[in-house]
Design a protein that fits this description.
alpha/beta, Rossmann fold, 9 helices
Length: 269
């Protein structure tokens, strides 16, 4: 399976650079050490921001042990972690967590897990969770495919959200894109019947790729117009909301004239 890029907001987080050699860690190499497990596809990074602020570091020390974990091989017990039984939704690539926090506050009946690689982004979200006392967010630091393969049980998710994944626009890097056929099949297998996969992108070429991959996945059926469905027929009955908070990144895309393409699929019941 192709590995995954977990950067949702690809303008606000450190940007992974392509490896200097074509080889990538596979198999056991992917498991050796936290570095290779956090970044299974890339070997070097160019950071756009420095270390955590003192306030973020203090908040991290107080709050991360309760709401955050690194990717692991042990199956996740979400009920125990959240301290309640509730529908479980995963956001792949939560970035700095602006949308994550807003959706958690708008959907207090859901348990939300954000998956992200980059600590500076996670630290901003951890600080907001502490400051605003948001109780229904938990965070996993690591590769999303690793999480889905090893920590999430089949048919256990009510929703999966993937907002603005890195498009890897150069043709030679297309294999690095998150939404490949094998990854869509994996995500669909983790959704419960009736569960929802919601994807958004501002990159036209990636949108075409996502549309083709999604249409070919037999476990999924379109719920909005982009995917061949009618959103009005499902908006009120879907187990998660179809609305997304507008982030600074999306506002910038709108000002630049970039069209936002939304894909909403449901797991066939």
């Amino acid at each position: 399976m192709d590995a995954v890029n977990d950067v949702a907001n690809h303008t606000s987080e450190p940007v992974p650079e392509p490896p200097s050699t074509p080889s990538e860690p596979v198999g056991d190499e992917r498991r050796r050490g936290s570095g290779s497990r956090l970044y299974p596809r890339v070997t070097s990074f160019r950071s756009r921001r420095g270390a955590l602020t003192a306030t973020q570091q203090q908040s991290w020390q107080r709050t991360w042990p309760r709401i955050g974990r690194d990717v692991a091989d042990e199956p996740l017990n979400a009920t125990a972690w959240f301290g309640r039984e509730a529908p479980l939704v995963i956001e792949i690539g939560c970035g700095t967590g602006t949308a994550t926090a807003a959706m958690a506050q708008a959907e207090p009946h859901l348990n939300l897990i954000g998956i992200e690689v980059y600590k500076p982004g996670l630290a901003q979200l951890v600080h907001r969770v502490e400051r605003e006392n948001i109780e229904n967010i938990r965070l996993l630091r690591g590769d999303a495919v690793d999480v889905l393969e090893n920590m999430i049980a089949e048919q256990s998710l009510t929703g999966v959200r993937v907002f603005f994944p890195d498009p890897w626009p150069k043709a030679r890097h297309h294999k690095r894109r998150l939404l490949q056929p094998a990854t869509l099949t994996l995500i669909a297998s983790r959704l419960r019947p009736g569960g929802v996969l919601h994807v958004a992108t501002d990159h036209a070429d990636y949108a075409e790729h996502i549309a083709a991959v999604g249409a070919a996945e037999p476990q999924l059926i379109g719920l909005n117009e982009t995917t061949g469905g009618v959103s009005a027929d499902h908006r009120e009955t879907a187990p998660i909301g179809f609305e997304r908070p507008i982030t600074k990144f999306e506002s910038k895309a709108h000002r630049a004239g970039s069209a936002i393409t939304e894909f909403i699929w449901g797991k066939i019941e």
